Amino acid sequence: MKVGVDVGGTGLRAVVYDNQYREVKRFFEPWKESKKSKKIQKQLTDFIKKMHTHGSVGIGLLGSIKNNKINNAPNAPGLNEMNLAKYVFDNDVNMFAVGESKMGAGKPYRNSIYLTLGTGVGGAIVIDKKLYNGKGGAGEFGHMIIIKDGRKCPCGQKGCLEEYVSVRAVERLGKKYLRKNMTPLQISELALKGNKNAKKVFQETGEYFGIGLTNLSNIFDPEAIVIGGGLSGSLNLMEKGINKTFKPSMVVKPKLLKAKLKDPVCMGAALSL
Ligand SMILES: [Zn+2]
């Protein structure tokens, strides 16, 4: 059997699969210590050991990876510098793309692009059914600049896509149009009830997203763009905005698809074994 582990901002998730990649069992463990503490490295090691009793283990990790070490995990900084050389692992967005392209929404397509909309924007590229990594870091679509001299991004640049299409971007627009601090979920609930300002939040977010999607389509001309992550639940609310700006130069636009798997990162991690 194979186990896919998803190391995320809220904790550790794992799914045990049989040889046909059907789910056999699942686990979830929230982080027990502060995510800034190095102690969470031990929790991760213990969790992996426990999962090994069910089969071989593949891991999808939040944050970037360099020289087999977790280089930058802003949502769990306690993991920074952790060495993973003895494991099969990749960053969570790549695992998401492997899972969705082999078993999920991207399955019918040879060339597809993957985006996760959450705290930030993650990206991955699948060409001829294979993950394309560049020198190791390809797919940082969240830091594609869509506005000159735009909002300052933690990466040091200005006007990055993820400053306009992410949880923090939606929260910022929520504050602007609804005049209070609300989560994207609360804003989407209001929008679904017909609140005009809440709708405007997602429409404007969609307009920015459409610019990013246009750029990606013009560069890759993929058959499909698969979208996951927490904010993907509000794609319908963004649609009007997306349609306004998503205008790539090719005659046939790529299909915009919502991710299909329940745990795409776990699936991708298990498939990578
Ligand atoms: Zn950036």
Could you provide a short overview of the structure?
The protein is an alpha/beta fold and 273 residues long.
Can you offer a commentary on this structure?
It is a single chain. The chain has about 270 residues and is α/β, with parallel strands linked by helices. The chain is globular and about 50 Å long. The longest helix is centred in the last third of the chain and has 25 residues. β9 and β10 form a beta hairpin. The mean pLDDT is about 95. About 35% of the residues lie in helices and about 25% in strands. About 45% of the residues are buried. The protein starts with a strand and ends with a helix. It folds into two domains: about 80 residues, ATPase, nucleotide binding domain (Nucleotidyltransferase, domain 5), CATH 3.30.420; about 150 residues, 2-Layer Sandwich (Nucleotidyltransferase, domain 5), CATH 3.30.420.40. Strands 3-2-1-4-7 form a five-stranded mixed β-sheet. Strands 10-9-8-11-12 form a five-stranded mixed β-sheet, sandwiched between helices. The structure holds zinc ion. The site of zinc ion has 5 residues, from loops. Zinc ion binds next to loops.
